Amino acid sequence: MSNYGGAITTDPSDLTRQNLNLFSLIIVSGNNVSYNKTFGEEDFDPKRYVDLSLKSNLSKTQKTFDGLPRSGENGTVSVEDLKVFIATYFDDAGDDLVYYDPEDFFPEPQGFLPKVKNPEVRSWALEVHALWKNLSRKVSDGVLEHSELHTMLPLPEAVVVPGSRFREVYYWDSYWVIRGLLASKMYTTAKAIVTNLIFLVDTYGYALNGARAYYTNRSQPPLLSAMVYEIYNRTCDVELVRKALPALLEEHAFWNSEIHKVTIQDAQGSNHNLSRYYAMWNKPRPESSTIDKESASKFSGNSKKQQFYREVASAAESGWDFSTRWMRNTSEFSTLSTTSILPVDLNVYILKMEQNIAFFANVLGHKSTMESFLEAAEARKNAINSVFWNDEMGQWLDYRPTNGPICKESETWQACNQNQNAYASNFIPLWIDLFRSDAALVENVMGSLQSSGLVHAAGIATSLINSGQQWDFPNGWAPLQHMIVEGLLRSGVKEARSLAEDIAVRWIKTNYIGYKKTGAMHEKYDVQKCGAFGGGGEYIPQTGFGWSNGVVLTFLEEFGWPEDRSIGC
Ligand SMILES: OC[C@H]1O[C@H](O[C@H]2O[C@H](CO)[C@@H](O)[C@H](O)[C@H]2O)[C@H](O)[C@@H](O)[C@@H]1O
């Protein structure tokens, strides 16, 4: 288990032990191979190289690599030699996961989306449902027997991957995959995903960003308790709750540990504890090493570079990699300052975790745990209201303490430190029953959402800033649509329900038209145009796609689709 209390717990030699293969070593150590300029095709993706697995042990492979002919001042290896070397010593990326036929998959499960009456929509929904088969995998015997040759981690159960370059399980994606699997009645597969995440918490002390050795320095938005809650709601599986509770307590401690916890004193002098993202890593991300090095080249001096790398990895921990949300100057990527920001959504997820732990403790009869987590939830709710809520705007805003990097001593709250830019995350508290139980508040927030400029023809934009980063305008992401729609829907306010349905219909249509045009479900969409997929960021747009499939199925289950409603834009 990792000791996340320290500043950095994982160095490259540690990574080697944890299966990070030769390519990550080459990339991490900055060896003289310039991949992005001299090697590979136009769609070069550094992640591919850290996903390859070694055919035999590292020392032999390393020796051969060291012996390759070099030229020029930098001792560059030729593209041809490198290609031969890779083909000889590595198996392909993706070979370490094998296709898996989920036992609970049926082409048309009993009771599938009963409210979807329109035949065209129904037949598409069945195609989306069938994608679970394409995305189901299990780790190969090679990974289980020789994990030192792979960056893939040896998960005990079958997995559902997002798709394309994302060949491994991702933490927060799994929540929407599970929501979709529940609509598809695939309860065994949903539980297997949770079992894998519990395995990661048991092994590392927290749920990793993804199931790869190079993700062992950070987590992702903490939604494990929400996954267990949804599965329990459908299956009443008390054993699952019993298995999950210790892992959830451990995860809660992780997010409240020294590196994540920040104390803010409000205008009335009361102290509030909130959490931030903070990756245990201050080097280039192995899966995006060439890109990170190039971005860091602006900084002179090791310590500035290291701080920048930590901000980058922490933004990846947020799931919003990358976004102007994390930049002090929204037009300058190098001003990334993730660890200096208290994010609304992270604290909402932790509040949900606290509520869920209290609920599970009650199910298992652990009264004192229940009471202490009800108290923790109440305290965090107050903190969210005191630090993030902006009454004039009717939104919850990220908070950036005055003095830049968050210091140990408690900071005093100032209104001007709230980030007033419109982000979809400003509305995520609606997802929590504690915030949506007040009808007047819901109406206020709903009005604010409608006038924010975020609601577009094909869904809710991530932000209003077109920065070229993928978690900004004009991209819309399935998880953000889902949390806001579900929040509005469950508020019980009539107008909020109809706004929720309106957004869900726009989202379903854009997914449908995009699917008909391209034959695929996409990772993100362009909310300006119905049927257009999103772009920007550091990799080419991906298809598959776990959370998009999950959200479409969840929306169709909730709202249905009447026979006479057109699916065209
Ligand atoms: O390889 C670059 C980054 O890719 C991941 O982030 C994106 O995809 C994930 C899977 O769908 C998603 O969870 C995340 O929100 C996306 O931004 C990965 O999670 C990053 O850590 C990684 O550096």
From TrEMBL:
One of its GO terms (biological process) is trehalose catabolic process. Its EC number is 3.2.1.28. It is an enzyme of class 3 (hydrolase). PROSITE patterns: TREHALASE_2 (PS00928). InterPro entries: 6-hairpin_glycosidase_sf, 6hp_glycosidase-like_sf, Glyco_hydro_37, Glyco_hydro_37_CS. The keyword DNA-binding does not apply. Keywords: Glycosidase, Hydrolase. It comes from the Eukaryota. GO terms for molecular function: alpha,alpha-trehalase activity. It catalyses: alpha,alpha-trehalose + H2O = alpha-D-glucose + beta-D-glucose. Belongs to the glycosyl hydrolase 37 family. This is Trehalase. It comes from Salix purpurea.
